[in-house]
Batch of 3 targets.
Target 1
Amino acid sequence: MGGWAIAVHGGAGVDPKLPAERQEAAKQLLARCLNMGISALRSNFPAIDVVELVVRELETDPLFNSGRGSALTERGTVEMEASIMDGPNRRCGAVSGVTTVKNPVSLARLVMDKSPHSYLAFSGAEEFARQQGVELVDNKYFITEENVGMLKLAKEANSILFDYRIPSVGLETCGAGAAATDNPLQMNGLPISVYAPETVGCVVVDREGRCAAATSTGGLMNKRTGRIGDSPLIGAGTYASNLCGVSCTGEGEAIIRATLARDVAAVMEYKGLGLQEAVDFVIKERLDEGKAGLIAVSRNGEVAYGFNCNGMFRGCATEDGFMEVGIWE
Amino acid sequence: MGWAIALHGGAGDIPVNLPPERRLPREEALRHCLDIGVDALKSHKHALDVVELVVRELENHPNFNAGKGSVLTTAGTVEMEACIMDGNTKRCGAVSGLTTVVNPISLSRLVMEKTPHIYLAFDGAEAFAREQGVETVDSSHFITPENVERLKQAKEANRVQIDYTQPIQEDVQKESSAADGDSQIGTVGCVAVDNQGNLAAATSTGGLVNKMVGRIGDTPIIGSGTYANHLCAVSATGKGEAIIHGTVARDVAALMEFKGVSLKEAAACVVEERVPKGNVGLVAVSASGEVTMPFNTTGMFRACATEDGYSEIGIWTSSQN
């Protein structure tokens, strides 16, 4: 057994012009969450409790796109989603379309622990939250002034870029659209300056070699009401088994198609690759044109990350004293 | 090479003494849907069109748990979900929480083709259906007297056996199969490979009898209930939560891709080793026109055909059929 390891992320695909003070704030938050996880691991908390604890903290801080600070739907509302998975028995829980639950990741945990199901969504998830007595807040709590401004920008950009993924529509003939596609720094069809990546996630292996993963997000800025992304989908945004724990972030649709999180585990299991090799393989081979990043830990106490886009907010630490917090390559 | 098609109408604890009035209409529906799929493949329709066509037909059949005939939530309502995936492009679409859309599978195809997203659910999916002008009906259209009775029985059984605060998985299955022998069964799915080697998979369901409102199962989740790539197409059915844990459909493809095993070996490995007994069945075809339909439940309503003339319709293991 290689000791504990932990990694956190706050999304992939970062605007290179992000103000320095915001970069600094992001790094401080990642370091704070990492230290919180490290303390829990040193106190022998099981991996599943540690990932929940850390993601709760990331949700509660308004900086990243989850919980408070979530990206807004086209209607200006917040619809959050989250999932959690416990490696040893592959139990999992997920929620989508949550609008009043302060910590969606903890509701996902309750779906796993207290319901016969793995995944609850929209009004059913809200009803379950009330039954379970989790902390509820008004939807306004999640909406930050900054995101209201971002939604406005996204709507302006979207009027040009809507349906960017559908070749048959022929929007590329539109002059403004052509200008926008010249800009290489786009995520999900939005200029990177208004794209709100910043999904959060945490993966942990504890001293017993148990792996766990959790991911939480407000989704895509200006998304349609009802849109489900990769974060709540087991095997896409989140996966944990007896070998590893994985949390992904980036263009949700590319991650879903690639079953990205499961594939890290699958190439370890079926191809015999090591953790970093597995991460590099899926980022290179499985994303096609999509842009994404991920963090992973193995049961041997290794930690790894990878991304094929412009930067990823991430931090990691291992029991032997290694610790890193970074944004760029 | 050559076309191949397989379809299912659910796997589970199907009693071997299933009365003829329950068995025969389902066998007849499987035959009818298989014929439709075979005709479409012979007319050189694209695999994606074939799986959509066949699943629409299965959805319209009231004896299966999809579209009309969907089982009911604990609130007595219908919440349908479906998913479709095109193997060569890996494009996909999914929907959950539909209450008025006659053919959920076709709405999932529209999500794939007409939105930048893959997955729409509940009110947002219903709003999208209205925008697209697909056929919608009052939710009562989907509710059959048989399913009202099933819900009643499941609730009675539930009262004694399920405390939702206790995650006792075994009881969930015991309770529902006790209701009337086939209450949980009937998710539908179809996989096909056409003459051009295009692969596609589609799955549609009403979910679980007496499910919590808002519950999402494996069917709409890419890689769990449904998956297709350039090697194979897979549609799974059974206990949703177990299929999600096992990422069943993706794992069949992953074993072929990363371990180099054949379709039959990959499917058998997933069904026998990755999901507890009594929980899963699947249908799958490969790019080279192989077909396989393993299950670790008592039975699975299933049918398949290949271009070389092979055809099979079955419920239990071959010795019991």
Note: Confidence is low (pLDDT under 50) at residues 160-182 of chain B.
Target 2
Amino acid sequence: MLDVTIKNNHLESLAKYRQKLMTEPQLKHLFLELTLRCNENCIHCGSRCGEIRSEELSVQQYETFLKEIKEDMGTANKMLCITGGEPLLRKDFFDIMSMANGLGFHWGMTSNATLIDDSVARDLKKCGMGTISVSIDGLPETHDKFRRSPKGYERAMAGIESLLRVGGFKSVQVTTVVTHQNINELDELYKIFNEMDIDSWRVINIEPMGRAKDYPDVILTKDDYIQLFEFIRNMRIAGEPVSYGCSHYLGMEYEREVRDWYYLCTAGLYTASITANGDIIACLDIERRPELVQGNILKDRFSTVWKEKFKDFRIDLSDQCEKCKGCSEEKFCHGDSFHSWDFEKKEPMLCFKDILF
Amino acid sequence: MKKTKKTALTAAAFAAAVGLSTYGTIVSGTYVDKELKANADQFDNTTTYGNTTTIQTVYGPPSYFNTDPTEETEPISETDPTDPLDAPDPVETAIPGDIDNDGQIDSFDLAKLRKLINTEGELAPPLTENGRLDYDLLEKADLTHDGAIDNSDIHALQAYLKGEIKKPTDFAIPVPLYGPGPDFGIDK
């Protein structure tokens, strides 16, 4: 374990910095949910993609919106994070991203990669894609069952190989959502990924949200969580580019040890998102509730919304939570991540107190 | 999976935390020791943490932590000299783009940068006098902060010399938070 005194000092500083961000937010990550359509039907999907009809914005509407962003806020230090559904299902995908690239935006994408072959990979490179993260959620049988996608593993791995073969991207990452069913496959997955020229492997736990709420048996147990974080830490000790995601305060034992940064939920501070129908929200993973919609890009100027609204996200959630009161870690955790907040019970759906610390 | 300078530093930090003197291919006296000492000095000039300190602070936030502790970006311009976290850098800092190390950025740097990259656009690894990889030079040459020295860095330096951008690092890529992870594309 790394030095606790230093970690504590860093977290104290981060808490002060976060206070500053609440009054001076800096847009860095702008998520565009291009569609809710998906060619897979994952058990863990936070968006319940495939179950609902997807409204979609046109290329022209995205162009108008992105030109406004560029005009009002510039493109420097901002990243478009393209997601869905499966973004590549849009026939006009390359029109949208070529336009965004032409305006000067950096962009990356999350994808299941099942629609990527060498030709698509070359097109992605041509229209400026810098980074991509592809989901591999277990060994072949587990992956296909979890994503309810026959041959999904085979096609996703072929997509990754195309990306690596074409090359020229800043980074090709694999993301694995760890469940109670696949946690014992991590060592085997490592052997597979270690033979590939990927840049990093993001290993995250399934969240008790979206469709996963219907499948409680996939949620990790206490022992599973410890196994997960020990796995990531051991990978990093061995010098492997393995990391946990941005979610959740992990306590002194694991903060900074399983990722290169300290916990900070950036919803509304660094991060905003545009849903498939143009709604302006904070983070796409946060429960979709009408009162959390800050505006819509078809009728509101984004820069004004970013500056004047988002008040619900520039707060400490812990102020509303009885369970958080008296917790020694509240000053660093602030009620944990917005995406796992239970807005009815006003408490975190996943808190690592008594699990990790 | 690609191992980078960043992952090596992480491993070294853990190794130091458990008291190992060396780890993997990290060689004492090269980039790691130098960088770690520099960061320790910047972070806290007065406190001694023992043998592991210098590595711990590198593994923690960089010295410009107060700017943006979740990612590695440009140092901040606002500083509070009373705050040890914001203390002025006591160590001579490499100037991005100053490839020939003469304290200024000019066409000589561009020429030297070009020499590092062959006609295929590949890097000929620069070595120090003692035959080790010259991380200081790599650091200064990686103007796009993508962990690679390539034509994009030449392009950035050219643009700076032409006055098209204000800083040689103005083309440095931002760091996405999600999907592509926070350190995505930044192997620093």
Note: Confidence is low (pLDDT under 50) at residues 20-92, 175-188 of chain B.
Target 3
Amino acid sequence: MHFAIFIINSHGSLVYDNTALSDKIKIKSNDALRLAGTFHTMHSISSQITPESAEEEKFIAGTHLRDGIQTIESDSFKLHCYQVLTGIKFLLVSDVSTPETEMHHMLAEVYQIYGDFVSKNPFYEQDMPIRMTKFDKAIEKLFMPSYY
Amino acid sequence: MFSKSEKISVELLSLTYGTFVARLLKENDNAEEVNLQLHKIGSNIGNRLIDEFLSKSRKTACKDFREIADVIAKYGFKMYLGVTAEVAKWNEDDTQFSIYIENNPLSEFVMLPIHLQQTLWYSNLLCGVIKGALEKINVMVECEFKQDTLRGHDSTEIIVKLVEIVEDRYEDDEM
């Protein structure tokens, strides 16, 4: 079961949050913003303390995106972070029994929807909050296919 | 991966692009200016297109500039224009290469009027797209046309030159 999605842009501000996937998480929009900022910071610290491996040094594009936090696990939830080469982070909060591969797969799908509905929307200004019903619908369809 | 994506007809694309360039030429009397505008528009397109490209091609980080060139020519051109391009003419330190496009779909039905043959780079949008897309993954390049069959040259050639690869840094606060 999935609880919430957050999308953080490359500068660390929250551009999209959806906690309506289930009614288990309730979070005020201001708190969500703060959370996203904090996560972005933690992620960047974690990637800075990641030891450099010989293999990584070979990559030229995207070296600045050395892997940071990928998963946070607790007794009651799992959080998976999928960072793409352009610096956008997609976060998914799910229950503990969800396998990470599934979460990763879901976020890859979300990224495709982002490419289709957000990037291609000529009225969307980059790095601004995403408020689009078509995007919302596509996300809903992905996570709650039984409704459709 | 290419079979899944939505397709539109080449005619529609090239005719739309044609009217678009014609309109720009009408609004600006200077072809140089049109070149610049096409480049700028392309760059804005590239900025947005990169996310779709990465998500659908499932490409991960490239090892070096050569791999970037390959991905652009083999996957980028294939995905958005339906043709593949050739990479050639590397310089000694691997910072500059040429892309050869054999059948540029954008210029399919086009013949340039004589007074534009020396000034207008008809498909200059492509340069902008390449530059804009790479910019988003922190690879700064300069990109320009060298030859175009529309101008009577033997081939269509785009030169891509690496300027720098930017690293994200977090500066210390000033004391």
Note: Helices of chain B lie at 10-27, 31-57, 65-81, 124-136.
